[in-house]
Amino acid sequence: MTYRGRFAPSPTGPLHFGSLVSALASWLDARAHNGRWLVRIDDIDGPRTVPGAAEDILQTLERFGMCADEPPVWQSRRTAHYERAFAQLQATSGLVYPCGCTRKEIADSLVRAHARHATLAYPGTCRDGLHGKAPRAWRLRVPDSATAGASVDPAIIRFDDRWQGPQSQNLATEVGDFVLYRADGQWAYQLAVVVDDADAGITHIVRGADLLDSTARQIYLQRCLAVPTPSYLHVPVVVNEEGEKLSKQTGAQALDASRPLDALRTAARHLGLDLGRPDALITSLDAFYAAATPAWAQRIEALKRP
Ligand code: GLU
After folding, report:
1. pLDDT range class, residue 118, cuts 50, 70, 90
2. Fewer Cβ within 10 Å of end Cβ, the chain: N or C?
3. For the domain bounded by 4-77+238-303, which CATH number is listed?
4. pTM of the prediction?
5. Residue 207 beta carbon below 6 angstroms from any ligand 1 atom
6. Structural domain boundaries of the chain?
7. Which atom of ligand 1 is nearest to the CA of 12?
8. How much is the pLDDT for 119?
9. pLDDT tens digit sequence for 25-64
10. What percent of the chain stands above pLDDT 70?
11. What is the 3-state secondary structure (H, E, C) of the chain?
């Protein structure tokens, strides 16, 4: 198998330290496997996309010495592929259905569920019809949870994360039928990511742990679309002093592209990499990557459970 990894930034602003950590982890993992490393611009969410941010991110990655092995892929240019995948899902009777619930209706029903100590999954209001409401979004039906005593529960998705260890999520009770096509006329992130990774032949996904919770949905979608499930590794997210994930919304600073080594060394420390020599002796990007690649391989090896 040829390793194919990727970094998939959303162009909502310039690259910041949090996204650098994800980029570096995916880059080092690809290098440690002698694999290929691709970049995809996740600009499917038109309203969140900041003009010029994608070009800025691509340029910053290059300044940091991370060059993609193939031209970048842009989600905004791939809607025909999402339509095709959606049509494929629609061909299975009842797998996708229109939903007429507004955000407020769903929020209200979740509040009621919470009061009953029930789960916070979409309650399936439109599963069996729109009840006179106008269709707004389209949802993917997830399997019902097995009755007590069954040996296999089709609603539970399990996977082994190479950093976080064994994971499982019950799609029926923790998520519910999820949106593929949004009420604002956009393809949902979950569908786009699964279709893109499959079309690009991605074998290994390395990204921030904020996406750990999406992974079970993505694996379920891969099964529905009959495409392979890649291997997953979610690195710890970078948080600010208030404990919030670094992002444009939480005021993350753009990286200083004129001093890539400083930020790279800090990112390596965040990943717990032992570069094996003092910072002062790592004076070039080549020297940094030559030290960081085996350090990454060692770090991942040390995380392996017996
Ligand atoms: N574009 C997503 C983000 O920036 C990441 C998608 C992924 O790595 O699967 O949060």
Report:
1. low
2. C
3. 3.40.50.620
4. 0.93
5. yes
6. 4-77+238-303, 81-181
7. 4
8. 65
9. 999 999 999 999 999 999 998 888 999 999 999 999 999 9
10. 97
11. CCCEEEECCCCCCCCEHHHHHHHHHHHHHHHHCCCEEEEEECCCCHHHCCCCHHHHHHHHHHHCCCCCCCCCEEHHHCHHHHHHHHHHHHCCCCCEEEECCCHHHHHHHHHHHHHCCCCCCCCCCCCCCCCCCCCCEEEECCCCCCCCCCCCCCCEEEEEECCCEEEEEEHHHHHCCEEEECCCCCECHHHHHHHHHHHCCCCEEEEEHHHHHHHHHHHHHHHHHCCCCCEEEEECCCECCCCCECCCCCCCCECCCCCHHHHHHHHHHHCCCCCCCCHHHCCCHHHHHHHHHHHHHHHHHHHCCC
pLDDT digits over 179-229, tens only? 999 999 999 999 999 999 999 999 999 999 999 999 999 999 999 999 999
Read off the pLDDT of residues 235-252 as tens digits, 9 standing for 90 and up.
Answer: 999 888 777 877 777 767
Q: Which overall architecture, per CATH, does domain 81-181 show? A: Alpha-Beta Complex (3.90)
- Cα(13) to centroid of ligand 1, in Å? 14
What's the CA-to-centroid distance between 215 and ligand 1, angstroms?
11
State whether the beta carbon of 16 lies less than 6 angstroms from ligand 1. no
